[in-house]
Amino acid sequence: MKFLVDAQLPLRLAYRLRDVGHDVLHTRELPRQNSTPDSAINQISLEQERIVITKDLDFLESFLIRQQPYKLLLVTTGNIKNSDLEALFLNNLSQLVELLEQHNYIELSRNALIVHQ
To answer: Which residue ranges does the record assign to the DUF5615 domain (predicted)?
Structure first.
C-alpha cells in the first residue's frame, strides 16, 4: 500500500511502515520538506494514489469538499508518544490495510478504527 505521511507525524512512522513492506513517503522527504503545501500533498496523493496519513483537519475538509487527497487516514489520538503511535499503527495495520482497500476515509483513534462513508 502507498502512503504519504504528513508533517505532524514522525518520520519514524514512515520508516516503520516501510519496514513491513509499504511504499511510504514522509513530507520531510519532499523537496519543500515539512513546508510542502497541502495542495501539493494532495496532488502527489492523487498522481501516485497515495493515502495521506495526517492529524491535520484541513485535509478532512479538502477530502469532503473536493475528494482530495486520494484517500485519507486521519489520526485523532491527540497527544501521544511517538512509540505509542507507532505501536498503535503496527497493532492495527492489517485491519487498516483491509479497510483502506475498500474505503476512502478512515479515522484512527486511540481506541477505534472508524470507517466514514
So the answer is: 1-110
